Amino acid sequence: MNEVEQKILQILASRPESEISTSDLVKQIFSQKYEEIKKYLYNSQKDQELIKHGKRNNARLHRQLLYHLNNLAKEDFIRVTRSEGKGEKYFVLNGDKQIKTDKEEKTKRLLESFSTIKTEASFLSGLEQYETEKIVKKFDSQNWLTKLNSYIIESPAQQDTKKIYELLTNLYPTYNDVIALNDFQTIIDKEDLELLTNFLKKIDIDTKDYDKYLNLIIDLTQVKNPIKLTDFLSSYANLEPLNILIIFQTNSKTLANQTRLATQIIKNFSEHKLRINIQNKDIHKAPYLLGRAGAYTFNDDDWTQYQENIKNKTIGICCSNTSIYIDVYKFFKEKHTYSEFRELLLKSARASLLATSMQRRKSDILFKTINNLNGHHTSKFFLISYNYIRLWNYGSNFIDLTNLQDENQKFERFRNLLESTMTELNEFCKAEETIFKSCGIPIRYKVVLSSAFERFDKEFMSPRTYKKISIKSLDDFYTETIINQIRQREDLARIFNGGDRVRFFRDKTFTSEEIISEFNFLLNTFNLQLFSYDFESLKGELTLNSFL
Amino acid sequence: MELINDDVMALWKNALTLVIKQGEEFKDNDGRICLEENNLVLTLTESTPKISEPIERMIERKKWIYPSKDELSNIMFKEYQAPTYDYTYGRRIFSFGDTLDQINSFIIPLLKEDSSSRRAVIVLYDPIEDSNITNKNSPGIIYIQFRIKQNKLCLNCHIRSNDLFFGWPANIYQIYTLQKFIAEKLKIERGNISTISNSAHVFKDDLEEINKIIG
Known about the structure:
The structure holds two protein chains of two kinds.
Chain A: H1 3-14, E1 20-21, H2 22-29, H3 31-41, H4 48-74, E2 78-84, E3 88-93, H5 102-114, H6 128-132, E4 136-138, E5 148-154, H7 161-171, E6 175-182, H8 185-190, H9 193-210, E7 213-219, H10 226-239, E8 244-250, H11 252-257, H12 259-271, E9 276-280, E10 288-290, E11 295-297, H13 300-310, E12 316-327, H14 328-333, H15 338-361, H16 363-366, H17 368-374, H18 378-381, E13 386-392, H19 407-438, E14 447-451, E15 469-471, H20 480-495, E16 502-506, H21 512-525, E17 530-534
Parallel strand pairs in A: 5-6, 6-7, 7-8, 8-9, 12-13, 13-14, 15-16, 16-17
Antiparallel strand pairs in A: 1-3, 2-3, 4-12, 5-12, 9-17, 10-11
Chain B: E1 2-5, H1 8-22, E2 24-27, E3 33-44, H2 53-61, H3 69-77, H4 89-94, H5 103-113, E4 121-123, H6 127-130, E5 141-149, E6 152-163, H7 168-186, E7 189-203, H8 207-214
Parallel strand pairs in B: 1-3, 6-7
Antiparallel strand pairs in B: 2-3, 3-7, 4-5, 5-6
């Protein structure tokens, strides 16, 4: 679905009781362009030429929006309630239709996936001031009380892609960021390539329509048929799906034995400028998920608990209930202090606790589909879930009130701040678990720290201030700058208990052997749980020779 | 050891002081160090206790989110259990094993029939569900016994593991609401409430806050 059309649906879903005019929608959807137009329409000189120019541009925006509104009306997503004046139309969501066809069924689900539960009362989270200052944002704030943030589905428990597709179709309205299909290599091993490709094509469309992410977790240490996997990955790369991400679980030993497979992955993914996400299983056993908000994972102890006591009783396991992001750069730019920062993290934790307990109380309505799938084990599905506090622009360039000049000292100071805050957060979580448990409601409540992805909300977040890690060759990994950058991330990973991803931007041309050597080096030398190779900065066409 | 008082705040403070002074150090399975007193009996003799005062003190602290009185009472009386919870007290009391309403089907008729009965016991621990080595979530309150003495409804509550700082204020209020409900049904007055905590403990991490309460 087109991005503008998605935004229209989200706005209408947020106010399901009221009709919204084309003008109001223009102001909300093209807010930046409209602000520009206003400068012409209401210019201080009242210059008629400028006003005319503004009106022309405004009309252009209206026409552009009407095109999308008409598309949605044709598809029965929305309907016109009335027209007024010079063609000003009013729209509402088409929520009253009787569901008859598959298409309408999909329409309903799509709308549900954007809608909040109306009966859910809002609450004061204590973050309001920071939200106004655009320092804090809840991920999918309209639905954060009513949808899970991320979870894992076990692929081996599903018969085939047809079953998985049916399952996913029912689950889109239950989450707001990402679902991961764990051990997806088991499905690739047993299913026909054509069916796999069709499955990819269908979920590519659906994930775009629903504006949600899906991960395929492929454990390379468990692959039985590497040729089939290569073919599948080639289909995936050709499709270039926007919201389907693959995470490869491996280790250096496996990589050394799968050079042919690795070569093909590098060739296919780099040609299509797709990121290669590699999880080092020697460092971290629990799977990783990559969504819009950021990376997700489980603590290895929690994951072991899941594998020993829960796996096969449920469809999978919930990873997170909520994500809140904090723009560290903006926070310190506004002259906030370290103690205020600590306070903000605790306030964020309190807000997510309230959200989680609200979700749990209404779980019979909100997660009916999941509960039905899990049967009487459904409480176990939520047993090890987390609440994420994600930091953005937290690098060594953050504004430091102590005016430290040395980057390492700055980093050290910030790391210490995070570490001590994390201790406080853990104490808070333990206390809350004890309180609830003592009162007769045993709930899991754990806040974890991680980083935020830029795609969390590009418009909201401050421009990236930290340095990208660009690699031209293996030699770069021996330079002091790169080693320092990676060591800092390793250091932070100890505090980022919700996981972290380190992204490398790969420059220039290369051979697959070179990339494999770099992967090997990273797997063997550093304690990075997950790293991504990004080929976006590649220039020019790559020829097959580059990989041979 | 038994502490008896007619003032709930004084009883709570005395219990906290006792455990801090005399408690043995003990490391729980999360690695946290607690001070523990075994088999501590706390008896509240007050006839109209300011029973919610400890909860109000906890809510006042604002450092934590402590459930309100309404929430605590709901937990005790709500038979419905949201599917994401392993158990709730309300479900165990009013719909044990999805079938038995222990209060309305047993306690009230029994005590109406035989006011001297010592069989008026409700059980919150369900061995079928809870006696599982890997299960870390089993109820703290194991059983509650009701007895009529001198025409007053007395209550004894056995708590296997009791965080005196965070848990006891909620527990004493919750069992009080249950006692009040049954006493009204039986049209008699309320009598003493005793909690028998097998492991009455506080965590060393919380000592600073506990001392603020003790004063």
